[in-house]
Amino acid sequence: MEARLDIFAHPVASQVVKNIAAAGKPVAESSLPASTSELVVLRASQINGCGFCVDMHTKNATKAGETQQRLHLVAAWREATVFTDAERAALELAEEGTRIADSAGGVPDEVWANVTAHFDEEQAGALLSIVALINAFNRLNVIAQRPAGDYEPGQFG
Length: 157
Prior knowledge:
The protein is an all-alpha fold. The protein is 63% helix and 0% strand.
């Protein structure tokens, strides 16, 4: 598969990608656990069918020490016993925030209440932000048909 557009070589698209990546810096610097962030971006990428991001975040999570068992079970997190209640709340937010068009009312209050029961205000804001950012990255990659499989951990900094 070849990409429709090389978003890193395109003058406009590459600048947009750089700006989205820069917008993620406060999330990385927040107190949100990196493992939770990786699970969230992986789940959103699975839902959106973004092979490039699934490849990237699976490899990044593995390099950061995440287990293969947990990574394999992200898509079935509701039935899996390997996630904490906080991780479940984050994964539910990732799903609801990614499938926002499927719900006329947006993300249900119960989902947000569950997030705030497990995460402080800074972490909840980081979760909200990372869900929005990964959805933007997913859309860029899916529309451009960016191929998956060649990502190397740390490739982008």
